[in-house]
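User: Could you go from structure to sequence for me? I need the amino acid at each position, not a summary. Structure tokens:
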């Protein structure tokens, strides 16, 4: 009886030991499997994150380049607009200043006639003994003086360069001749006065220039 009991106990112990070893082996196998296969999903999860970051960085770079390009275009357009505005403003100002240029040229002929008329009258004849001629002469002088005042008011200035240095921008030389007592290159005679409108030569003075002997 005692031997039977011993055999039963030994068999039970063997079964328990086998079951425990089996369960331990299964746990170790699962742990090894997890250790072997566990990192793979994490690496796979990192790849999409890295890919997204690279994509975002690339898009940011493209956007920065587009912003830089648009900024340069805006600056160029702004500069072109400012240049156009400045040119338009200058054109408007020039039109205001020189819009009467053609009208002034026509009036210059009237001023020339008045000047010749007053110069043609002998001064010795303009006396109280000849009241009609004196009144006519005084009227011509007054008219000439008034028209010169109107010219000055509108920026039209007479050029009478007698004795001045010859300036090709304001004078037109009709002849060159040596003149005793005068420096070469100066104006010796003015045959027709010139005019400037707001600093711009409207009609050059017709002159004779002193030439070196």
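Assistant: Here is the amino acid at each position, in order:
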């Amino acid at each position: 009886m005692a031997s039977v009991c011993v055999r039963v106990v030994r068999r039970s112990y063997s079964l328990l030991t086998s079951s425990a070893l089996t369960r331990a082996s299964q746990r170790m196998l699962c742990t090894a499997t997890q250790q072997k296969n566990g990192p793979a999903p994490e690496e796979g999860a990192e790849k999409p994150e890295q890919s997204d970051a690279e994509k975002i960085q690339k898009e940011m770079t493209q956007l920065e380049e587009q912003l830089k390009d648009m900024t340069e275009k805006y600056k160029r357009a702004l500069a072109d607009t400012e240049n156009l505005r400045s040119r338009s403003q200058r054109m408007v100002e020039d039109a205001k200043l020189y819009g009467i240029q053609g009208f002034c040229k026509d009036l210059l002929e009237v001023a020339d006639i008045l000047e010749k008329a007053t110069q043609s009258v002998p001064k010795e004849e303009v006396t109280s003994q000849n009241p009609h001629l004196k009144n006519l002469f005084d009227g011509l002088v007054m008219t000439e003086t008034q028209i010169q005042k109107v010219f000055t008011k509108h920026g039209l200035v007479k050029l009478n360069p007698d004795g001045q240095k010859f300036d090709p921008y304001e004078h037109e030389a009709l002849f060159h001749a040596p003149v005793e007592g005068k420096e070469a290159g100066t104006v010796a005679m003015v045959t027709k006065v010139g005019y400037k409108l707001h600093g711009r030569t409207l009609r050059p003075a017709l002159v004779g220039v002193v030439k070196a002997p």
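One structural detail worth keeping in mind: The helical segments are 2-37, 39-98, 101-120, 131-153.
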